[in-house]
Description:
Layout: E1 5-11, E2 14-23, H1 28-35, E3 44-48, E4 51-55, H2 57-72, E5 77-80, H3 84-93, H4 95-98
Parallel strand pairs: 2-3, 2-4, 3-5
Antiparallel strand pairs: 1-2
Helix pairs in contact: 1-2
Amino acid sequence: MEEFGLTYKKEGTTLIVEPKGRLDTATSPEMERRLQPELTGMKDVIMDFAGVDYLSSGGLRALLNIDQQMEEKGGCLKLIHVNEYIMEIFEITGFSDLVPAE
């Protein structure tokens, strides 16, 4: 099983996040815990999904929590480089109607 990784950088009021591996019930709380202090002062989050190969309901929940925090600040969460498998999950669950993904 591939280990979960997370890198991020700040550009102005945008946090660019690059998760890697599985974003599931086991790893999504860790992602949220590590990102929480980084969200302070940020308005937008761009999450690059190029390295994500699996997403569960726990991962969706974490993304919704981040999206809600950004909306409260007048910003948003945007997902980029989403593979076909994960995009299909977003479309089936209606997540793609809530968060822009490409």
